[in-house]
Amino acid sequence: MKKFNRSFTQQQPIDANGIAAAVAVMQSGRLHRYNREANEHTETDLFEQEFARYLGVNNVLACASCGYALAIALKSAGVVAGDAVLCNGWTLSPVPGAIHNAGGEAVLVEMTGDFCIDLDDLAQKAEQSGAKYLMLSHMRGHLVDMTRLMTVAKRYGLFVIEDCAHTMGAQWDGKNSGSFGDIACFSTQTYKHINSGEGGILVTPHNDVMAKAIIYSGSYMFYGEHPAAPELSVFEGLYQQIPNYSGRMDNLRAAILRPQLAEMDVRREAWNARYQVIEQRLRQSKAFNCPVRVGKETYVGSSIQFRLPDFSNEQLQAMVDRCQASGVVLKWFGAAHPQGYTSSYKDWQYLNLAASLPQTEALLATVMDMRIPLTFSLEDCQQIADIIVSQAEQIVKTTKMLDLTNQDKEGGHAGTS
Ligand SMILES: *Cc1c(COP(=O)(O)O)cnc(C)c1O
Q1: What distance in angstroms lies between residue 233's CA and the mean position of ligand 1's atoms?
Q2: How remote is the C-alpha of 366 from its chain's centroid?
Q3: To test the ligand 1 pocket, which listed residue (61, 65, 66) has its Cβ within 8 A of the most ligand atoms?
Q4: pLDDT for 129-165, tens place per residue?
Q5: Is the pLDDT of residue 244 over 90?
Q6: Is any atom of ligand 1 closer than 6 Å to the C-beta of 141?
Q7: How many other CB atoms sit within 10 Å of the CB of residue 375?
Q8: Which helix (H) or strand (E) holds 304?
Q9: Are strands 331-332 and 367-371 parallel, antiparallel or unpaired?
Q10: For a designed S-S bond to 357, which of 89, 99, 125, 374 qualifies (C-beta 3.0 to 4.6 A apart)?
């Protein structure tokens, strides 16, 4: 089979409009978000306004990163040292990092086979821990039944922070991901849905929370100059109470994000066309188990996850190695040691976790994860899927042959003794 020879980490270039806007910012020399002329709307202001319109929310704050936004989200929500924060057990390390940063005590919740938070375990752990906060990470863009989740949250009085790093452009039952909970945070890091290298966005319907978040983000006395924010009276008395955790976005990043945001829904369709080519091919083979994505979930297929539930650890490692040799980069969450961007809850020892997550561990043991950059064509995706399926089938075939030979040997041995 022909080797695939394109890069899994190659992004699309910043388009001409973004480059022109970035050059204009550089020519002005006014890169800092509060460095403006009278009545000027900076690129950061405009990006916040446009994101507010896009998501259908009033309050938007652009930050230095999503991990940063998550940390000040927790602080703005009122988390103080020692407060329990519920969080799904499979996510990216900036999420437990944000809980630690805000002084929270993480209480991890199990995952289901469809890569969503287990709502029964959530209810149980909310009950047991008495936690008042939920950090809900829509890991790799899989949305749990948000209607049910919000019912559980309401029952236990949970303040919900959505980590939407992989769900910009996604919806549950026609409602935008990030508009369900009390706060939502998005990432504009290179491998997410819009790309400024680094960057984060915090949104909330609560004016008091937004006022705090703006001051935490390092507004100095310019908090009144935010366009997608509550009126000045909401900030009264706050700046003396809230420290400056300096983590603003700058005009250069905002300038290249604006044209990308305008294309977000086009990008979603492009991602999903690629995702579906790969998913359809995998579903034709019995070795693979693909998560069910129900009709109410409008997802963004910027990556794909699948399981090889009957594969042993040796076979899974062989799968990664063989695909790598064929130019296809898979990440295996069950590997003994974290690699690249991925780690598992067992690696987050700074959290001092009390309980283990057997269900999540069993799930992750056979999960493969693959990025789908938009620089791949549909033909590329077909070729990638063919490689994945053929490698899995070869592994199954070789193992069967080995089993047969072993059985012969054992049979022969038994017969002669
Ligand atoms: C990338 C990511 C983050 C953090 O984003 P940064 O902008 O890199 O800080 C948080 N959660 C998930 C699930 C992510 O994938």
Answers
A1: 33
A2: 20
A3: 66
A4: 999 999 999 999 999 999 999 999 999 999 999 999 9
A5: yes
A6: no
A7: 14
A8: strand 303-307
A9: antiparallel
A10: 89
